From TrEMBL:
This is Plasma membrane ATPase. The chain crosses the membrane at residues 66-89, 101-117, 244-270, 282-304, 650-672, 715-736, 789-812, 824-846. Keywords: ATP-binding, Hydrogen ion transport, Ion transport, Magnesium, Membrane, Metal-binding, Nucleotide-binding, Phosphoprotein, Translocase, Transmembrane, Transmembrane helix, Transport. Residues 18-90 form the Cation-transporting P-type ATPase N-terminal domain. Its EC number is 7.1.2.1. SMART domains: Cation_ATPase_N. Belongs to the cation transport ATPase (P-type) (TC 3.A.3) family. Type IIIA subfamily.
Length: 952
């Protein structure tokens, strides 16, 4: 019997049985299973036959991955230099330059090794964390429902599919209500399709509405998605980070190419230099100028940063999301669960009952019946928890049908039979939906809205409850008229750290906007408690449908940009908010947890799936949080900015070194016709790279404002600092070669007659100042004030100790150097320290020059740097005030505004107009007096004074 079963299962694996079209009962027969699911033993057995429920992952060759680090434009230039060292350098009766060839290959090998090890370690750590987030599904095994990884599913398993789930395998639906399934990821259909019992659902599609059980018919590579996967061309899109990397690399390569061209044109036709000497000088520019470590340093910095973020509770699915998070200036945050605890409680003393034959306890029981007793969400748990015994929710009734919550209807409902055989239906949900369901009119409708508003004034959410009888005694029947039975007050308190976290976010230049599906009054009250401001609007304003004239006249873009949040928001509104903010050139982050949030998460620059988000939300996001709350996001922003700061520091350093090597050695070679040793430049590069690798773990101060790649700043800073260091090296060479300055001042022996000793001296001077530059580029203040990490400082000291020992003791004929002794080493260190100090001053001058109107401000005796986030804001406020006066019928100003007026006066006039306009909007929106007073108190408005000037 077992053998026949194995054969049958093998036939199913080979797809000789069509399980997609045969009746569901035959599916169970063919798969040799029942509606009670499989046993654990049978599941393990089938797993051996069908394999894991996941797509085949190609094992990447570690050797090829290692070689891949040597395959990029910067490496190609170094590889060309290696070939040049043994092919083109073979002239003038001299042998090939094997030391340079071996040195270049060693440098490439060292860089690739470090990149491979660090990225592999970071990748393994991330993979281990992502494994904890592997898709899970509810499976019926051994007659019990349990959650397990989707990878363990096999044909014959019975699974539960509900709103927000990504279908884990191809399956046939069993009895229940129809589902709405989004198949856009598979078929490109933009609209969800309806799937009825008996229909097939495909792996990879998303459940948008409903809940049902299904039997798995295909897993892994045998699914519809698995068969199509091999047809997909996995091309890698060139992201912004790669473009920046390419731009900096191209700048360095072009700088080297220009330097080499000038050398060739001067050395051979004009100076008639020997062929081999000219090749050596060209090799100096090639080897020293190429920032060969740049791809390694930047990728390792991001990999280590990604691991650091994961330890803080933020797992990055897309590495370049780190740089985008560093530049994020707007965060659209969900209220429930992110800003609040998402632990709802019912205040029993405030329950409002609308029917005479029922008390508060009976109302809670009706609401509990319309709740799930298992697989509960926060609202269901809070209501069922109000009962003495949760079993009371189903005591004395027989459940016929349960309608789960969905974002369209915004309610749940149960159809049941009582002890007397009578059929009933009760529902709970968003109060507006329940009010419409019951078709409330007149006084009852006004009373309901009054209670809802009074709850909102206390920061309470409302939950409407309704009931009806079903005379036809059929679940498909519409039933009798719905009766509105009452309202339950629900309270979701803010997290203890939310207010402080929002303040920190604002200090970091990140504007937090609350996006909530709750009513406007509740959103404003929560926003007020969190100190976010109450400049919130209803979602209707996003579509230009707001009835309030004061809001309707404001352009939607301006509304979105200035608002503190939006209430009554649907999924399409979230997408629209993100889209508009991006069009306004904001780097926008969006948090979400549900399937409806997926489009907005995908659209946002940084999609953030909060803790316990659905599979669909996680799939669409760039960052997955493993800890609840907003504080994790703010910590991630700080960490991302620190990571970005390290990368930016290095790129400025890399450009500076390219310019200093190209300009310095080119001019020394052409003016003094001095041939520096390519091998010694290689030593400088190796020691530099070894030190610079530690920058990925350096201690840095994150930018206080959103940061981004500013190539203009990087190139200008790099060129100026590099040119200064090149000039310093030329001055040093002139002092040593053409004068006896150091001999006369410090009593050291003259070395101007010995080219090999000159090489040693120039080598040490270039090595010290080049590597010390990293301390300048890594700090925003004085470099000796912002101390580096011990690892970077230790690496610098170790590298320069080696460089100093080489200059003092080395007598390498092949490298054309001789030791110069400790006296000369001391003089060179002193010269380097003195010439290092102006680098900080130059950095400040460059930054000051790049701030736009810095020089204009200086000439006009204005401060170039201000604590104000919006320079010139006063003038715009004055114009805004004039517009508001016109809009709200305020009397015109008694005196004309002139350019000579003090900005402070204009600002106060604008502020008064804004306050009056806010009172007007509150009055016109018929907001309750208590809420008006809370805003008045919050903003410090003198309402009595304003009322004298303004009448609604």
């Amino acid at each position: 019997m077992a053998s026949n079963g194995d054969i049958s299962l093998e036939q199913i694996k080979n797809e000789t049985v069509d399980l997609e079209r045969i009746p569901v009962e035959e599916v169970f027969q063919q798969l040799k299973c029942t509606r009670e699911g499989l046993t654990s033993e049978e599941g393990e057995k089938r797993l051996q036959i069908f394999g894991p429920n996941k797509l085949e992952e190609k094992e990447e060759s570690k050797f090829l991955k290692f070689l891949g680090f040597m395959w990029n434009p910067l490496s190609w230039v170094m590889e060309a230099a290696a070939i040049m060292a043994i092919v083109l350098a073979n002239g003038g009766g001299k042998p090939p330059d094997w030391p340079d060839f071996i040195g270049i290959v060693s440098l490439l090998f060292i860089n690739s090794t470090i990149s491979f090890i660090e990225e592999n370690n970071a990748g393994n750590a991330a993979a281990a964390l992502m494994a904890g987030l592997a898709p899970k599904t509810k499976v019926l095994r051994d007659g019990k429902w349990g959650e397990q990884e989707a990878a363990t599913l096999v044909p014959g398993d019975v699974i539960n599919v509900k709103l927000g789930d990504i279908i884990p395998a191809d399956a046939r639906l069993l009895e229940g209500d129809a589902l709405k399934i989004d198949q856009s990821a598979l078929t490109g259909e933009s609209l969800p399709v309806t799937k009825n019992p008996g229909d097939e659902v495909f792996s990879g599609s998303t459940c948008k509405q409903g809940e049902i059980e299904a039997v798995v018919i295909a897993t892994g590579v045998h699914t519809f998605f698995g068969k199509a996967a091999h047809l997909v061309d996995n091309t890698n899109n060139v992201g912004h980070f790669q473009k920046v990397l390419a731009a900096i690399g191209n700048f360095c390569i072009c700088s080297i190419a220009v330097g080499m061209l000038i050398e060739i044109l001067v050395m051979y036709p004009i100076q008639h230099r020997r062929y081999r000497d000219g090749i050596d000088n060209l090799l100096v520019l090639l080897i020293g100028g190429i920032p060969i470590a740049m791809p390694t340093v930047l990728s390792v910095t991001m990999a280590i940063g990604s691991h650091s973020l994961s330890q803080q509770g933020a797992i990055t699915k897309r590495m370049t999301a780190i740089e985008e998070m560093a530049g994020m200036d707007v965060l659209c945050s969900d209220k429930t669960g992110t800003l609040t605890l998402n632990k709802l409680t019912v205040d029993k003393s405030l329950i409002e009952v609308f029917v005479s034959d029922m008390d508060a306890d009976a109302l809670v029981l009706i609401a509990a019946r319309a709740s799930r007793v298992e697989n509960q969400d926060a609202i269901d748990a809070s209501i069922v928890g109000m009962l003495g015994d949760p079993k009371e929710a189903r005591a004395g009734i027989t459940e016929v049908h349960f309608l789960p919550f969905n974002p369209v209807d915004k309610r749940t409902a149960i159809t049941y039979i009582d002890r007397n055989g009578e059929w009933h239906r009760c529902s709970k949900g968003a109060p507006e939906q329940i009010i419409e369901l019951c078709e409330l009119t007149g006084g009852l409708r006004q009373k309901a809205h009054h209670v809802i508003d009074s709850f909102a004034d206390r920061g309470l959410r409302s939950l409407g409850v309704a009931r009806q009888t079903i005379p036809e005694k059929k679940k498909e029947c519409a039933g009798g008229p719905w009766e509105f039975v009452g309202l339950l007050p629900l309270f979701d308190p803010p997290r203890h750290d939310s207010a402080e976290t929002i303040r920190q976010a604002l200090d970091l230049g990140v504007n937090v906007k609350m996006i909530t599906g709750d009513q406007l009054a509740i959103g404003k009250e929560t926003s007020r408690r969190l100190g976010m401001g109450t400049n919130m609007y209803p979602s209707s304003s996003l579509l230009g449908q707001c009835k309030d004239e004061a809001i309707a006249t404001i352009p939607v873009d301006e509304l979105i940009e200035t608002a503190d949040g939006f209430a009554g928001v649907f999924p399409e509104h979230k997408y629209e908010i993100v889209k508009r903010l991006q069009e306004l050139k904001h780097i926008c982050g969006m948090t979400g947890d549900g399937v409806n949030d997926a489009p907005a998460l995908k659209k946002a620059d940084i999609g953030i799936a909060v803790a316990d988000a659905t599979d669909a939300a996680r799939s669409a996001s760039d960052i997955v949080l493993t800890e609840p709350g907003l504080s994790v996001i703010v910590s991630a922003v700080l960490t991302s900015r620190a990571i970005f700061q390290r990368m930016k520091n290095y790129t400025i350093y890399a450009v500076s070194i390219t310019i200093r090597i190209v300009m310095g050695f080119m001019l020394i070679a052409l003016i003094w016709e001095f041939d520096f040793s390519p091998f010694m430049v290689l030593i400088i590069a190796i020691l530099n790279d070894g030190t610079i690798m530690t920058i990925s773990k350096d201690r840095v101060k994150p930018s206080p404002t959103p940061d981004s790649w500013k190539l203009k700043e990087i190139f200008i800073t790099g060129v100026v600092l590099g040119a200064y260091m090149a000039i310093v090296s030329m001055i040093f060479f002139w002092l040593v070669h053409d004068t006896l300055f150091f001999t006369e001042k410090f009593g050291v022996k003259p070395i101007n007659e010995n080219a090999n000793e000159l090489t040693s001296a120039l080598y040490l001077q270039v090595s010290i100042i080049s590597q010390a530059l990293i301390f300048v580029t890594r700090s925003r203040s004085w470099s000796f004030v912002e101390l580096p990490g011990l690892l970077l400082l230790g690496a610098f000291l170790a590298a320069q100790l080696v460089a100093t020992c080489i200059a003092v003791y080395a007598n390498w004929g092949f490298a054309r150097i001789e030791g110069i002794g400790w006296e000369w080493a001391g003089v060179i260190w002193l010269f380097s320290v003195i010439t290092y100090i102006p680098l900080d001053i130059l950095k400040f001058i460059i930054r000051y020059s790049l701030t736009g109107k810095a020089w204009d401000n200086l000439l006009q005796k204005k401060a170039a740097f201000t604590t104000k986030k919006n320079y010139g804001k006063e003038a715009r406020e004055a114009q805004w005030a004039a517009d508001q006066r016109t809009l709200h019928g305020l009397s015109p100003p008694e005196t004309s505004w002139t350019n000579e007026k003090d900005h402070h006066e204009l600002s106060e006039i604008a502020e008064q107009a804004k306050k009056r306009a806010e009172i007007a909007r509150l009055r016109e929106l018929h907001t309750l007096k208590g809420h008006v007073e809370s805003v008045v108190k919050l903003k410090g408005i003198d309402i009595d004074t304003i009322q004298q000037h303004y009448t609604v």
